[in-house]
Amino acid sequence: MWNSIPICTSEQARLADQKAICDYGIPSLVLMERAALGCVERMQSHIHPNDTGLIVCGPGNNGADGLAIARLLSERGFFVKIVLPDSNQMSSDEKVQLHIVQKLAIEACPLSACSLEPLLHSCDYIVDAIFGSGLSRAIHGQWYETIAAINASGRPVFSIDIPSGLDGNTGIAQGIAVKAAHTFALDCVKWGEISPEGAPYCGMLHRVPIGIPSVLHEKEAKWLSKSSLCQKIPKRSPFQHKGAFGRALMIGGSPQMPGAVSMASSACFHSGIGLLSVFVPDSIQTILQTRSSLIMTIGAEASKDGFSLTAYQQLQPILSRFDVLCIGNGMGKSPSTDALLQTALSSDATVVIDADAIASAGQHPFWLDREAPVILTPHIKEMSDLTGLSMQEIKTRPYKAVTSFCAAHPNCVLVLKSCATIIGYRNQLSVLFSPNSALSKGGSGDVLAGIVTGLSGWIKDPFLAAQFGVLVHSMAAKQAANPVSFTALDLIQNLDFVFEQFIK
Ligand SMILES: NC(=O)C1=CN([C@@H]2O[C@H](COP(=O)(O)OP(=O)(O)OC[C@H]3O[C@@H](n4cnc5c(N)ncnc54)[C@H](O)[C@@H]3O)[C@@H](O)[C@H]2O)[C@@H](O)CC1
Ligand SMILES: [K+]
């Protein structure tokens, strides 16, 4: 079950372990036993009864997990061998685990005294229990050589808690890291495991609960899934008129990019909005009208590149007609964007800010501090424009960037798009990890903005609308028969099938 799974930094994971032990009195060895049992149960569907396993143990409690796993596998009839760290390096729990293992006549050999290559080549799979959340420096010497040999062996690797060598926060290999086929994230998923750098090292990610009280993770980011949202989506009454499902206005478009606002509008209409109008430069009004007979178009004064500098004067008087505005798609970096954004934000409507309007919001952050909700949907580059943080800073610690933005702008919902999309609101973070190259295409961001706008019309909670929009968008992409030929237009086509799973 991926429902309510916490996503933590290494520090948060360690703190939860400590609090469970010290404040709740759960013995460390009890947590460890649950961890080992959970890993073995999951491993059993991937190994054969006659396989030989090599359990490579490091000097801390990750190594102690490895020894407990070796014992449980052996008790269940699997043949295992163990590689040990030097005994003077072992943690106290590891010494306890070793003491038990020694009584069971399991073949164990210290790393410094064994010949690793033949062991690696005679085994069928490897358990990587070298380092977990306690990795504190770059890997050198014997551990570097051990990890290099594990990776070169070609054997499937089960990594315990995290592939050894991976930084739990950033997912960056600290010199070297194990390439796992399966990773068993103990208690919580670590941010580094779902980062673009770290995820490829993890192989298939499994979460193993170990009995840490969930109250200890109350404040941490949560995994977004269908089951976590299903119960929260409001019912759509069949007796309501169209106005009850929201009146939206999409502001965007330019002669160079009429398609972006067209796709966003289409996605909005397919996401439950009652009424939709589009405010575009009058030079592209006919194109929009030809593309969809569902959408009412309002033509604003145009310049060569898009909206004219005075177009905002035509926006002002009509704003009170709408509950939700979406601004930015295909607008281009036109000088008129600032005035249109400021005007949109002066309304009482929920405002979704995407694409070219995000940089403008970054230049005027105080405009965001209004009473009605704002939903921003930047990708990494746009997040950099919005916050002034470098792309590198955002990539390595995206949760930090989202947390500080949301703390500074308490009425804003922020959707940071990446292979792990983070949705932040006040002190809450929700994370959708569903990497899919079908979404790495022009237009998929416009479709997301349209979906979120459509949902905001009838789901009055902006955080819920944003989370639901991100999930629906990803589920629509999962329907791709092949990511190569899939386009943003296919996303819109698949929405009907996806909504069917939530709303009958
Ligand atoms: N009771 C607990 O605390 C629990 C801990 N658990 C396991 O324990 C792990 C955390 O245990 P630890 O805090 O002991 O940390 P680790 O087992 O990750 O490693 C810490 C040890 O590695 C050494 N070390 C760190 N970086 C190194 C490097 N680059 N080169 C060489 N040595 C290095 C440290 O000096 C220390 O001896 C978790 O990842 C999880 O697997 C689980 O069993 C659940 C319960
Ligand atoms: K590990």
TrEMBL record:
Superkingdom as given in the UniProt entry: Bacteria
Protein's name according to its UniProt entry: NAD(P)H-hydrate dehydratase
Organism: Dubosiella muris
